[in-house]
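Our platform keeps sequence and structure together, in a single record for each protein. Such a record has a labelled line for the sequence and another for the backbone structure tokens. The tokens are whole numbers drawn from a learned vocabulary of local backbone shapes. The remainder of this section carries one protein's record, kept here as part of the documentation:
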Amino acid sequence: MIRQQELDRAAAIIRSGGLVAIPTETVYGLGADALNAQAVARIYAVKGRPSTSPLIVHVCSVEMARSLVTDWPQSASRLAARYWPGPLTIVLPKKPVVPDIVTAGLSTVGLRMPAHPAALELIRRSATPLAAPSANRFTGISPTTAEHVRRSLGDQIDMILDGGPCDVGIESTVLSLAGPATLLRPGMIPLEELESVIGQPLAKAGMAEGAHPSPGMHARHYSPRTPLLIVDGSLPPGRGAYLWWRRELEAELKLRLGDTAEAYAHQLYDALDRADQAGLDWIAIEAVPQAMEWCGIRDRIQRASARD
């Protein structure tokens, strides 16, 4: 459990323009004052993140979210009532108070209310929204434990709040309401459920020129340093690690993941990290089901296995 003194220290760091790694229910975030352009610039520098990739802004209340946008439609109210706090990011037109560096120069901002109590309390104590992308080097495996953060960013940040392993395990669903309702990044919320809440079908995002409307839209992302292959029935030659959920095959290192989408997502990044640390020739991952509830997981695996 995170102590009150740690939260007080973390809030003081945020208010002074520093960087704090924070636990959320999805992955660990690298948090800074979202209204402080210089603090946000440090996030980009530490992560090695391109300026074309916007950051999600984390809030502790609907009132804080509404203070950052020029429009809050009824569909946003319905989504927030259903999914906040939780793993849903809503993209809306931003007010000038949100620095352009946060949004990659776009006129929209992604907002989320995290479900982890420490993240919510840190936002309250800091009295400011937090820009918080995943707390790792850009395109690397997202961290789901404090130890993952330590190995990725080490002493480049000011503090790590250790809130234990993340419950969900992959990043939030991102849905834009700035124009036609559009799914920008799948997560663990079923598409049909989102459409039912907002009362209309969702458009699918196409490829964006220049700044991306959401994080996680680069072709290669969430990637181990070891080459990752998606397989269905056979493994390549050499020494490797095999991540499976249904069909066991012989490999130097074998890691079994859960056979439900929720259990699998919770374990995925930690298993990829363990396999990457083993120093083998390759990592193979068994293809996952095509069912809708696996959509966010398929997206992460496909991007993690993409080659530059």
In short: Residues 261-277 form the longest helix (17 residues). The radius of gyration is 19 Å.
